[in-house]
Structure formats: C-alpha cells, structure tokens
Amino acid sequence: QVQLVESAGGLVQAGGSLRLSCAASGRTFSIGAMSWFRQAPGKDRELIAQITWLGSTTYYVNSIKGRFTISKDNAKNTMYLQMNSLKPEDTAVYYCAATKFGSPVHEYWGQGTQVTVSS
Q1: Residue 16, exposed/middle/buried by CB under 10 A (0-12, 13-18, 19+)?
Q2: Which residues contact 66 (CB under 8 A, 6 or more apart)?
Q3: What are phi and psi of 67, to 5 degrees?
Q4: Residue 56 pLDDT exceeds 90
Q5: What is the pLDDT of residues 10-38, one digit of tens each?
Q6: CA distance 65 to 52
Q7: Measured distance CA(85)–CA(93) in Å, rounded
Q8: Cα dihedral 32/46/111/91 (nearest 10)
Q9: Rounded to 5 degrees, what are φ and ψ at 64?
C-alpha cells in the first residue's frame, strides 16, 4: 500500500502562485507514476499533470501548460505542483494520486485539498 498526504491548499488572488506537495509513504518502490487531478464544482475530476516516478517524463493538460510545473524529489518521496499565473477557473479540489508500476490505474489517492482563486 501507498499512502499519500497532500499539503494544504488555500485562497489566492488571480495572477498569484501556490505550491502543492504530496508526500508518499509505504511501498513507494511500487509507484509507477504520480499525478495531480482536480475537480471543479459541477465538473468531472480531470487529470491535469503526471510525472513518472523512476524517470521524469511529464504530461500536462493544455489548460495549465506554461503555468503549472510538476516535479518530484524521490529522496523525500514527495511530488510538487507549482502553480503560477492562477486564474479563477483553476478553483477546484486538487488531488494527488499514484499508479502502480506497469499499470495505468490510479490506485492510491490523497485526501484532496481546496484551491480557490479569487478574481
């Protein structure tokens, strides 16, 4: 099993920045990739960024490209999401998640954290 604990989100003004972190514990050697999802009110949860655990291959959804950066520190078993130039439409509950190595399924989830961007 892998446990994921996210840092607190917060309230930020449009144009501002915020960094989220996600600390993994347990069987971290079994992680294939770690991801950030978000769910805005009334919308489906969407995958917004992903990074492979052993390498550093990244993926970003178009809506955040150039503004958000996903990174990780394997020594600390921690993943980060640096969010810059935040927009009100970035307001959502943000979740970190992890897949098992060799599987595309996100089996492990953090508790979610609220990010609110005011205009």
Answers
A1: middle
A2: none
A3: -115, -40
A4: no
A5: 999 999 999 999 999 999 999 999 999 99
A6: 17
A7: 18
A8: 140
A9: -115, -5
Q: Considering only CA atoms, which of 75, 65, 66, 86 is closest in space to residue 20?
A: 86
Is 104 exposed, middle or buried, given 0-12, 13-18 or 19+ CB atoms closer than 10 A?
A: exposed
The tokens for 44 are 């489906």
- The position carrying tokens 């921690």 is 78
Q: How many residues does the chain have?
A: 119
Residue 55: which pLDDT band, with cuts at 50, 70 and 90?
A: confident
Cα distances from 7 to residues 43, 96, 100, 103, 113, in angstroms, run 23, 10, 22, 26, 7
For the purposes of burial, counting CB atoms within 10 Å of the CB of 20, is it exposed (0-12), middle (13-18) or buried (19 or more)? buried
